[in-house]
Amino acid sequence: MITGVQILPTTEAIQQLSINSVNGNGNGNRNGISNGNGISIGNGISNGNGNVNRNGVATQQVTPAPGTRSIVIGPHTLYGDYPPKIPESEVKSVQETGEIVLSSVVIPEFVVVHDGPPTDASAANYRVRYKDYIKNVASSEIYATWPVATIQANILAIMSVALNRVFTEWYTGKGFNFTITSSTAFDQKFIYGRNTYANINKEVDEILRRG
Which residues form the domain of 175? Predict the structure, then answer.
């Protein structure tokens, strides 16, 4: 069950879902909207009995179907209470790994996101397509209502941080089995299961298309 989807009044929000029957008779019930990870959401966020809280988040009391998992989407980083970034040296020494060094930057297809601080062994790792990771972080860290140029500049900054972690092997070089974390104290905010915004998605796709 997904709760806390962030909605802006003038911007199209996209939540990746597929419809699966959960009551065994070929018809989905009110908990029957789920994605490939077994995440369910009741009646497309809200129905006639739903409420909208002061943050514009649609809410409804539903009972998750058996076998589903609950995901609570936290507040946006621009107003939520998240730990500040721990300062890092701008110039980092990179240890030789014995791997082949590429002559140019190659965009990875996937990154592995650790959903917590690096040393939190209980936090889940999520293998995410790189472009979907960028869309998620951008939707979590900036407002979709900002001017296009501002959105583009922030997307490039988000990509820069992610690619730095990839190509310096910042975590894998320390023995961790992930590419980057979702902790704002160490990296940038990734919220598993959250919705993204159509105009942010469009700008990410266009930047990646241009290379």
Answer: 110-210
* Model confidence at 107: pLDDT above 80: yes
Mean pLDDT in residue range 141-151:
95
Is 183 among the domain residues? yes
135 beta partners: none
Task: Tell me if 107 sits within 8 A of 179, measured CB to CB.
Answer: no
Ranges of H-type helices in 31-179: 130-141, 148-167
Are the C-beta atoms of residues 133 and 189 closer than 8 Å to each other? no
204: phi > 0 → left, psi -120 to 50 → alpha, else beta; which? alpha
The reply to whether 204 and 117 lie within a common domain is yes
Residue 33 lies in a domain: yes
Mean pLDDT, range 147-171, rounded to an integer: 94
Element (H, E) at 204: helix 198-210
120: its two tokens: 């939190």
Residue with tokens 């946006």: 76
pLDDT tens, position by position, 65-94? 677 777 777 888 887 888 888 888 776 666
Amino acid making up residue 7 = I
d(CA 75, CA 72): 10
Same-domain status, 58 and 114: no
Q: Rounded to 5 degrees, what are φ and ψ at 39?
A: -95, 130
Does the pLDDT at position 54 exceed 70?
A: no
Task: Identify whether residues 117 and 68 lie together within a single domain.
Answer: no
Domain count, the chain: 2
